[in-house]
Specification:
This protein is mainly beta. The chain has one helix at 135-139; strands at 44-55, 58-66, 76-82, 89-90, 102-110, 126-133, 146-153, 161-162, 177-185, 190-197, 200-206, 213-218, 228-239, 242-252, 261-269, 274-276, 282-283, 291-295, 304-308, 323-324, 331-338, 341-348, 361-366, 383-389, 395-400, 406-412, 417-421, 437-441, 449-456, 459-464, 469-474, 483-487, 494-501.
């Protein structure tokens, strides 16, 4: 084994048969680059997750969908269902464009008390709240071409009927007036809508989902403003017995590593106003490829987040053929306090363990003298890799293949940042912004560090320090990455290294 500058201290998995999904005659769900543990549409274009709601044991995922092409087009609501958020079944299209326009992003709620009056014969209505986007008005230069509309389902989300009184919230003259996220505010027995309005958030309330009153605005002078605010979310979380409110606002462009990204605020909400704890900018995911993320509704105390795994800079150019783009792994959100400051942490949902297989590698201590672990006969098409470092210092980990392509990730102590470098990761020629190195600050102050990686056919998700620092990154190698090495590891001991195969959800 070659050493590079004396710094190569390797944990090298040399394998055959990696990424079998790319050699199965391009069958559906097994085409080149097709994710095997992430939801992606059977074919055609997908972007933002929409209408995420849990009801009668089913997680519903609606999503921005164009069924006639692999680039963005007239938006529909696609639909998928799951009992565990891991295995998905794509359903029929839920909502089609109509005379009011395309079906842009929004949310869905369980109207248990039938406040809307849509329920009949004791059937509880699911109600979707979405943006009607009028392309004719947009082309005409109007500033009120986005309005909020309703649809309801009385058969547990299988079929939907649009409300004949749409739109229920008319645009007062704001070009970007969209992506309603609605929740029930029990203290005042009313629905609260969090709406993205150009460069800030506007809150509305309603007793019945049909009649809306403006409550307040937030964010004109706070947060990142490199682009338009989109896809907001508002929900409570507890930390040490105290309730805090989290306001998510997705931003495009203006993310910490370029393009689209998800920022959040922590504060209090009284049914009328959101008051932040401070004016600091916080990012939920520092990687280039998580956007439009929101949480499922009706999940009780669990707050489960899902994002679109792409970036608007190049989403329509990535080198897939029959389909474009996927969702992240669902992530459970919690609050953590570091030096008196509160942060939102996220880690893969526990349901992901349901597709874990027996570990292929389980090494208590990867010593400095150990250059190579035993040769493996197979490496899974997708896997989770976990390890711990007692005293954090510089290190890098390299995924590479036999044609010299590589993805490098690690930690730089001087700048106190995690990083992912995909400059030589394979196909990078489709957009000049793709081949870059991306960084995430290390928020933890502990001397030890734990790392969890979720690796799929064309993506990696890094969860560091119990989910305090998170990065999502897609890549497109011409041949599978069949080597994994630790490099530049001086005085850093890798402990409890475990590699778990993940069974394909398809």
């Amino acid at each position: 084994m070659k050493k590079k500058g004396g710094l190569l201290i390797a944990c090298c998995f040399l394998i055959t048969g990696y990424l079998k999904a790319q050699i199965k005659n391009d069958s559906v769900y097994h085409e080149p680059y097709r994710p095997q543990i992430h939801f992606s549409p059977k074919e055609k274009w997908m972007n933002d997750p929409n209408g995420m709601v849990y009801y009668k044991g089913i997680y519903h995922l609606f999503f921005q969908y164009y069924p006639k092409g692999t680039t963005w087009g007239p938006m529909h609501w696609g639909h998928a269902e799951s009992v565990d958020m891991i295995h998905w079944k794509q359903m029929s299209i839920a909502l089609y464009p109509d005379s009011l326009g395309y079906i842009f992003s929004g949310s869905a709620v369980v109207d248990s008390n039938n406040t809307s009056g849509f329920g009949k014969n004791g059937k509880v209505p699911l109600v979707a709240i979405f943006t009607s986007h009028d392309p004719v008005g947009e082309r005409a230069g109007k500033n009120n071409f986005q309005n909020e509309s309703l649809a309801y389902s009385l058969d547990n989300g299988d079929t939907w009927t649009k409300y004949n009184g749409n739109p229920v919230l008319k645009n007062p003259g704001i070009r970007d007036f969209r992506d309603p996220k609605v929740m029930w505010y029990a203290n005042e027995k009313k629905w609260v809508m969090t709406l993205a309005t150009q460069d800030h958030i506007t809150f509305f309330s309603s007793p019945n989902l049909k009649d809306w009153t403006k409550e307040s605005e937030f964010g004109k002078q706070l947060g990142a403003h490199g682009g338009v605010w989109e896809c907001p979310d508002l929900f409570p979380l507890k930390l040490e017995g105290k309730t805090y409110w989290i306001l998510i606002t997705n931003l495009n462009p203006g993310g910490p590593n370029g393009g689209s990204a998800t920022q959040y605020f922590i504060g209090q909400f009284d049914g009328n106003k959101f008051i932040p704890l401070d004016d600091k900018i916080r990012w939920l995911d520092y990687g280039p490829d998580e956007y439009a993320g929101i949480t499922w509704g009706n999940t009780g105390n669990r707050k489960i987040f899902l994002g679109w795994m792409s970036n608007w800079i190049y989403a329509g150019q990535v080198p897939t053929v029959k389909w474009r783009n996927a969702m992240t792994i669902p992530r459970e959100l919690t609050l953590k306090q570091i030096n008196g400051e509160i942060f939102l942490a996220s880690e893969p949902v526990k349901e992901l363990t349901g597709v874990e297989l027996k570990p292929l590698v389980n090494i208590p201590v990867l010593s400095l003298k150990k250059d190579i672990v035993p040769l493996l006969q197979t490496l899974p098409d997708q896997y989770a890799l976990k390890f711990r470092i007692d005293k954090i210092g510089n290190y890098s980990m390299v995924l590479s293949n036999d044609v010299g392509e590589k993805l490098v990730l690690g930690y730089d102590k001087e700048s106190n940042r995690y990083y992912i470098d995909r400059t030589k990761s394979g196909r990078v020629d489709f957009n000049p912004e793709f081949a870059k190195t991306f960084f995430a600050p290390r928020l933890s102050t502990s001397s030890s560090s734990d790392i969890k990686l979720i690796v799929d056919a064309s993506s990696i998700e890094l969860f560091a320090d119990n989910g305090l620092s998170v990065m999502t990154c897609v890549f497109f190698p011409q041949k599978p990455f069949n080597h994994l090495q630790f490099q530049n590891r001086k005085n850093v001991t890798i402990r409890n290294l475990e590699l778990l195969p993940l069974k394909s959800i398809w």
